[in-house]
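2024-03-11 09:14:02 INFO queue: dequeued item Multidrug resistance efflux transporter family protein, len=327
2024-03-11 09:14:02 INFO validating residues
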Amino acid sequence: MRAILLGVCSSFFFAFTFVLNRSMELSGGSWLWSSSLRYFFMLPFLLLFVMWRKKWQPLLIEMKKNPLKWLLWGTVGFGLFYAPICFAGAYGPGWLIAATWQITILSGSLLAPLFYEKVQTVNGSVKVRGKIPLRGLSMSLIIIFGVALMQFEHASQLSIMPVLFTIIPVLIASFAYPLGNRKMMAICEGRLDVFQRVLGMTIGSLPLWIIFAIIAIFTSGLPSKTQTIQSFWVAMCSGLIATLLFFQATSLVQHNMAQLAAVEATQSIQVLFVLIGEIIFLASPLPTGMSLLGMAFVMIGMVLHSYISRSNRPAQTIKPDPSRQLS
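2024-03-11 09:14:37 INFO prediction written
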């Protein structure tokens, strides 16, 4: 019960990303600042945390081995993930983007053949190319159907360009985030923990955020006080608090597949938190019946996908995978 409660709490804090990003866009803030400020604020806190745990030197050694890979996959995993999410916030409500973001489960499954996994044989472990999990993929179709219902309702109220500017950036982000995270996990091969890896990828993505900040200065000026404060809270709530809560929840039930699946399924509640947050704080209108039905399909699909993806795995220690969450 404690793990489930922690999972729900993490989903609540993850929802701040979408609500506050939408708020910043509605108040005239540049998406360039919304995306870059989050990582500027996250960096010192992550650095202090990793140094406090005496894990900075191992990270520095790893980054010196492959500096270009940290730069590349940090930019892909964080830059091509969060910048499109912020860009999409200018064209669609947060609840719609949060629901569409759940398609990352499908994106992550389709990326499986790009990676190798260890399989235990009588002669020891061997590396084999990953396979697309077809059973889990079938459940992903339910999520896609739900997203399609919501996007159809959204499209019927707008011209084609705003709809595309909502869908395409989120699709790009849904592939970039798991790709960048998994590539870095493969490069590190278990030598770094999640906080070291997140810090390393944040450092690797800094050149992109600096470029964005320079462009923002010349195109829209310095960020307002309101946007700066809201970006700080996104960094704290989603980047730090939510991630800590989620990984604590998964660590409590890492030996129980059913309970682990239940914890992962709590992330589907994120869509409801975003919807409620926008209605209360942004005076957003209540979605239509079709959109609410689509939202229900997304949540049901996430729960079923989580249970099916775990049902056939043997009992073993499962390490939480950050490629499924907003870091």
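2024-03-11 09:14:37 INFO annotate: The mean pLDDT is 81.
2024-03-11 09:14:38 INFO item closed
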